[in-house]
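FIELD: query
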Amino acid sequence: MLLKKHNQTIKLIAIFILFILTPNSTFAFHNIENDTIEFNQYKGIVIDGKTKKSLVFATLTVDKTNISTITNSQGKFLLKVPKIYSKNNVTVSFLGYTSQVIKLSDLNPTKNTIRLETFIEELEEVQIAIKDAEALIKEVLKRKGDNYFTDHTKMTAFYRETIKKRNTYISLSEAVVEINKQPYTSGRSDFVKLYKSRKSTDYRKIDTLTLKLRGGPHTSLHLDIMKNPTLLFTEDMIGNYNFRFENSTKIDNKPIYVLKFTQRVKTSEPRFYGKLYIDANSFALVTAVFDLNITDQKKAAQFFILKKPRQAEVLPIKAEYRVDYRVKDGKWFYGYSRVDLGFKIDWDKRWFNSIYYSTIEMAITDWKVNENKDLFKFKERLKKSVIMSDEASGFADPEFWGEFNVIEPEKPIESAIKKIQRQLKRIN
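FIELD: result
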């Protein structure tokens, strides 16, 4: 029964839908009123102070607020802050680096370069109090009620999913969503409400094959493994993995255990392998980076493929996951997650195969305690089976997102957006 639940959870975070559509090159376009709340916008990049290498998934949090954002895969960020907080500071943090506190008044609207430095002391000097790696995992699970939010909260998040055919973007969906986040001690699922969304799909580049992701923002929320432990570890599932310590590190000047885990040979079902980053003082999980074992591609494909063309075999070639937690007043909560998937499609009567890649990511950009424990009305809730590329309302003007924080688009995506906007101008 536990294995069945584990497999169902994997499907919830990774399921893929493939089916034939008639080629269609039209784009939806909806005019939406611009937001009017006054805010300041800051753009820039976070880099290693010595190597100048960009720092991917660094967190920026506005002090004395719950406003935050994250850098993209090029280390770039876009931060929007209401003007009433213009005198506040922003804390920039990254695993293994000394956090930097910067006055918002010292930032420019564009072209900011923030340099973080690695810790001066040797990371190996962080003392390991618990010598048994497996015992550490059990302690993480045991202290969930102490370490993570026990309040009902309302969160605002930015969600993006993309599909590429080899190196060309062919589909993009983005959304601002609201989340009824349930306490970590509750077995009740989180609820999602779609606030704003936009999309574009160029079917002319998909060879009449459309890949669609089921789950939307729910896919990202299922990666909250402290809320959904059956994805990776419950006490009954720990025996499926081998654990060992790696060199420790720090974040926000706090020691962090680094735990590597791999699937034991005796387990035949595809499972995960990766690293866990655990706060050495509280035993809270801070970050998890892991992959699904796809050595047996055909067996692993069962977790992803809901429907496919009869004349094609679809095999996963990449399944990578990441989840980050943030802390406020000693309590941790889900802050960011990302899924990177890759598929090879072998056609029966074609010389060449097709390679598709998809990325799904969501970042919490603001939150507040839901004191009244209000829940979204049933008709407002986004279904767990939702397909965002169908649900979204079309690409809108540049001011569509107003004051909402988003993840800065990568350069290829930005180019695709500009191209789409030029097409929309011609259509209209």
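FIELD: remark
Residues 2-31+122-395 form one domain.
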